[in-house]
From TrEMBL:
Transmembrane domains' residue ranges: none
PANTHER family: DISCO-INTERACTING PROTEIN 2 (PTHR22754:SF32), DISCO-INTERACTING PROTEIN 2 DIP2 -RELATED (PTHR22754)
Ranges where the AMP-dependent synthetase/ligase domain occurs: 39-422
Gene3D superfamilies found in the cross-reference section: 3.30.300.30, N-terminal domain of ligase-like (3.40.50.12780)
Lineage: superkingdom: Bacteria
Record family assignment: Belongs to the ATP-dependent AMP-binding enzyme family.
Annotated keywords: Ligase
Name of one Pfam family that matches: AMP-binding
UniProt-recorded name of the protein: Fatty acyl-AMP ligase
């Protein structure tokens, strides 16, 4: 059965995710597989998943939580996370997914963000496993009256017959708070409703033509991020398409495990940000590629950060030897405020970056197709067409729609748009307008296809010309000793105009020589003067929990003079 662009037929009556869980109780066939930290796999059927989630929901109510209360989840185990998340949803309690601490190096910054999230969410409870409770002691007193719950204790208890029953849940109720990744500002809690989740999941199922019985997913994406949560937990639950979950940490330690899992489970759909594709290429040598069979894949979705044309191309060619078919890499674009997906490229059509003339792009925000003779060009990967039942516009600073090939702010309209930011009426008014969601991203439309050129707030404006930071960062990262994803470009006030600063993690080589090469490369390739190249130690750049660089935070650290200059690590 092929799902149409609205919820599948047998779901026609479900208007909340709580109802979907109740419906799935009757489906012991199919389910998901959780790969454990030690590599063992554990299968859980749809009906087991629902039964256990409903039981856990009532345990949460028994602990004193009520409909609408927020419960923060710092739960690293994927199976435990899914059950706690769905449990809260089934009871009308609002889960707030949070990342677990990543590494001790950034522990202080982690606690600062985590305390901010707990306060902004007004969390009534924090659910975290016993083995993290000591380390995360600083979070205990973030919010007055917040209970700290131990899942092992709470969920192990038998459910007494008189445990409270959930109240009625409505489509417009908030289903969960998705904290934004905080790449340009402090994280804000997006109020994602049951209705917006159902609309977006149905749109994803339609756009990817997910078919029950044919499609299966593999995901290593973190579940506290919208792409891992909505894309691989909620949409598959609605479609009842099986998914195998690989722990994010296992992927990070050994990126080749991703496609090895795809090959073994005969997965048809998997997604990753651009950096995930680059890591898979780098860590899967040719002899291992030949041992894989990726002919099962229909879609390798790529989104969540700007897509580099060369990364996508090299992924497609590198894994062609494993049977990866042309047109399988599908770029996509979305954001938490849109619940998740905004647009997808076309499945089965090999990628064609849009090559435009450099001068009108920088000087007049125009995306004029480059002629073969034009010397200076810029290329953007298409983000595809908006999902069915939704619209994308590109507007100027006053909100007026712009014609095709004019760069402006991307606006998204339709039922997937979330209900605003929790506890922040002012930010909600600015972004969630009656004319649609102002995404804060710059882009243009050409033949109805969307091209995203970068975050509006991150734009480098030098001598009246616009430069997107990622092109500057990618160009700098071509210098040996630096790595893509570990370079940040921003501007600082200069005497006559803003000046470009580049901060990059130095992996190897002589700092002074690397800095000189970066400066001259940006100057020759982009004709952009660079005021300073600051090379810092590996791990020094602030990142979001989903791995995006935090340009504004890096800039703040730079201006406060708190970045440590780097010497290359001895192992690099
Ligand atoms: P977030 C079955 N951005 O990143 C699985 N994409 O949300 C379906 N910039 O709120 C999965 N080019 O963290 C469907 N292509 O950040 C997945 O990230 C659809 O600046 C993609 O404002 C979902 C991505 C979700 C996500 C949002 C910000 C955006 C934009 C940037 C995302 C991008 C991209 C350039 C892209």
């Amino acid at each position: 059965m092929v799902f149409p662009q609205s919820p599948p037929r047998e779901r026609a009556t479900a208007s909340t995710f709580a109802e979907i869980l109740a419906e799935n109780l009757g489906h012991p066939d199919g389910g998901c597989t959780f790969v454990q930290e030690d590599g063992h796999e554990h299968f859980v059927s749809w009906s087991e998943l629902s039964r256990e989630a409903l039981r856990r929901g009532r345990q949460l109510l028994r602990s004193g939580l009520r409909k609408g209360d927020r419960v923060a989840l710092v739960v690293p185990g994927q199976q435990e996370f899914v059950l706690a998340f769905l449990g809260a949803v089934s009871a009308g309690v609002v889960p707030v997914p949070m990342s677990p601490p990543m590494g001790l190096g950034k522990f202080e910054a982690y606690c600062e963000d985590a305390v901010h999230i707990l306060r902004a969410a007004g969390a009534r409870a924090l659910l975290m496993p016993r083995n993290l409770a000591g380390l995360l002691n600083p979070l205990r007193h973030a919010v007055d009256g917040m209970q700290v719950l131990d899942p092992e204790e709470l969920f192990a208890e038998p459910l007494p017959g008189n445990a409270p029953q959930p109240e009625e849940i409505l489509p417009e109720d908030v289903m969960f708070l998705q904290f934004t990744s905080g790449s340009t500002a402090a994280p804000k809690g997006v109020r994602v409703t049951h209705a917006s989740v159902l609309a977006n999941c149905a749109a994803i199922i339609g756009a990817l033509r997910l078919e029950r019985g044919r499609d299966r997913g593999v995901s290593w994406l973190p579940m506290y991020h919208d792409m891992g949560l909505v894309g691989f937990v909620l949409a598959p639950l609605l479609a009842r398409c099986p998914v195998t979950f690989l722990p994010t940490l296992r992927f990070a330690l050994s990126p080749r495990l991703w496609l090895e899992t795809v090959s073994r489970h005969r997965a048809t759909v998997t997604f990753a940000p651009n950096f995930g594709l680059a890591l898979a290429v780098k860590h899967t040598p040719a002899d291992e590629v030949r041992r894989l069979d990726l002919s099962c894949l229909r879609v390798v979705g790529c989104g969540a950060e700007p897509n580099h044309p060369e990364t996508l191309r090299s992924f497609a060619t590198h894994f062609a030897a494993a049977g990866l078919r042309p047109g399988t890499v599908v770029p996509c674009y979305g954001m938490a405020e849109a619940t998740l997906a905004i647009s997808f490229g076309e499945i089965g059509v090999p990628l064609e970056p849009d090559v435009i003339q450099k001068e009108p792009y920088h000087a007049r925000s125009l995306a004029r197709p480059a002629s073969a003779a034009a010397e200076e060009q810029v290329a953007f990967v298409p983000c595809g067409r908006p999902v069915a039942g939704h619209r994308v516009l590109v507007v100027d600073d006053d909100g007026n729609p712009l014609p095709e090939r004019h760069i402006g702010e991307v606006v998204f309209q339709g039922p997937s748009v979330a209900a605003g930011y929790h506890g922040d009426a002012e930010a909600t008014r600015r972004s969630f307008t009656p004319r649609g969601l102002r995404t804060g991203d710059c882009g243009y439309l050409a033949d109805g296809i969307l091209y995203v050129t970068g975050r509006k707030k991150d734009l480098l404006i030098v001598n009246g010309r616009n430069h997107d930071p990622q092109t500057v960062e990618w160009t700098a990262a071509e210098v040996p000793g630096l790595r893509k994803g570990n370079v940040v470009a921003f501007t600082r006030p200069g005497r006559a105009t803003e000046e470009v600063v580049i901060v990059a993690e130095l992996r190897s080589g002589d700092a002074a020589a690397v800095a000189r090469r970066v400066r001259s490369r940006i100057q020759t390739k982009l004709s952009l003067p660079v005021a300073e190249v600051l090379l810092v130690a590996p791990g020094e750049l602030p990142k979001t929990s989903s791995g995006k660089v935090r340009r504004s935070k890096t800039r703040q650290h730079y201006l406060r003079g708190v970045l440590h200059r780097g010497a290359p690590s001895p192992t690099s």
